[in-house]
Amino acid sequence: MFYFALAALAAHTFLVSIPARVFFIYAHQENNVSFENLNLHPAIIKAINELGYTQPTPIQQQAIPELIAGHDLMASAQTGTGKTAAFMLPALNRLATPAKIPGRGPRILVLTPTRELALQVSDATTKYGKYLSRVKVVSILGGMSYLLQNKLLSQHVDILVATPGRLIDHIQRGRIDFSRLEMLVLDEADRMLDMGFVQDVESIASFTPAHRQTLLFSATLDSTIDKIAARLLRSPKRIQVATQRAKLENIEQRLHYVDDLSHKNRLLEHLLRDQTLKQAIVFTATKRDADDLADDLAAQGHVVGALHGDMSQRERTRTLTKLRNGRLRILVATDVAARGIDVADITHVINFDLPKFAEDYVHRIGRTGRAGASGIAVSFASGKDSISLKRIERFTGQRITPSIIPGMEPKYKPRFGQNDEKSRRPPQVAHKRNRAWSPNERSPFNHTDTKKSQPARFGRSTPNDNTDNRKRSLGRSSQFNNTRVYAEPGN
Ligand code: AMP
């Protein structure tokens, strides 16, 4: 017996020392798997059939059996892969049997980085749990009334979907009883880390029972996520959804090289006049840019709204409802909107400014091409964006095709052949990368004519700009100066 225990211990030590990725199950679509074979409660199957889900997605095929078996789970899956149902269907399955411990506190807790995603998860949960009796779903989000939240938390809750900051407030005030908690889901864990929620998440977890089932979903699984998982999960099963490329297959990605802001504006105007564009999300780098651009477009007669983190929850919800109901044709948004928006009629995503992180590009463009439809993702890039473009292309494993609209060609042209990786090099820029640009310096564009070129002055702020000084160069103050480097495929 002693030798057996020793051997088991040695095997365990050996296994845990092997890099985690060895144990990833790669999720592929098996055509013969149906929701009926996944041991889900008939009331859940009825609801998903009604939603028109005919077959589980790869992440659902892999995750649901592991979760029903009670395992902890670590999965790399992005929005758009069906990950919400992958964790929520087994969560609801638990609720189909009565709680073992009496009380009113939540049995399932889902933490999400943003309010939008939390609302999306709550909506999906309500739909999936429609035919289960008395499943009470409560969302606790920042920016909403404490009074209402206190009331909701004083009543019976089954599923609590929350953003970490506000939830920790309620926990510290002793308003939540986690004694019944059976499952903790960390949705978009990488994003929660980026947003500085790691301590809150760990602290929330410390208030929940140690025997809970813990699930972690993240677009990327790197060593930081691994460390958190090691603290919060127990012998998790790991699933990698190998669909990053496939997922973008129905999205045509185009790239427009741009010279300056007015060039961007002209291209945007042209794209928005396209009759095939039903609804579009235009992404900007800053909240102020989103407001300014929305104002400009409204002045041009477009039916447009802005969405960003400085708006109250009520305004954000109102704008999203308008988008969903088709009462907004264009939404100008910051990355806060990149996750969670699921509107079938979004035919175009336009990256007016490229995202700060390659991963956000995938989230942004995933707002189009929903539910099997095709979509178009257009990105504007100037000379300074070459590194960012390379990162995006490495991350997605796809090249973004440069496009030209006749009459709107860029003055800046890649110096090398278009199929050459070096073509992503920026034009020669005579300044130090991290130095703030002064208006008296030469523009990074039009650099062939030094004497005539005027300093470029553009009306939009730089990504980190919170000041009133909005006259900055498009080509300077690189948003990548402070970029966190992701461990991307190929790095
Ligand atoms: P998610 O990744 O959870 O944001 O889901 C992305 C979209 O896929 C949502 O519109 C879901 O309603 C939809 N969806 C999830 N699972 C399935 C499925 N098995 N079949 C069809 N659509 C699904």
The figure for the number of domains is: 2
CATH topology term of the largest domain: Rossmann fold
The assigned structural class equals: alpha/beta
Termini separation (Å)?
Answer: 46 Å
* Secondary structure: number of strands: 15
Low-confidence stretches: 1-24, 415-491
Largest sheet: 8 strands, parallel
Describe the global form. Answer: globular
Indicate the mean pLDDT: 78
Labels describing this entry:
491 residues; alpha/beta; Rossmann fold; 2 domains; 16 helices; disordered N terminus; binds adenosine monophosphate
Write structural notes for this entry.
By secondary structure, the chain is an alpha/beta fold. It has two domains: 2-240, P-loop containing nucleotide triphosphate hydrolases (Rossmann fold, 3-Layer(aba) Sandwich); 251-424, P-loop containing nucleotide triphosphate hydrolases (Rossmann fold, 3-Layer(aba) Sandwich). It is built from 16 helices and 15 strands. The strands form two sheets. The protein has an eight-stranded parallel sheet, with helices on both faces. Helix 3 (58-68) packs parallel to helix 4 (83-95) and helix 4 packs across helix 5 (115-128). The longest helix has 16 residues, at 2-17. 46% of the residues are buried. The model is unreliable at 1-24 and 415-491 (pLDDT under 50). The structure holds adenosine monophosphate. The site of adenosine monophosphate has 14 residues, from helix 4. One of its GO terms (cellular component) is cytosol. It catalyses: ATP + H2O = ADP + phosphate + H(+). Its EC number is 3.6.4.13. Residues 64-239 form the Helicase ATP-binding domain.
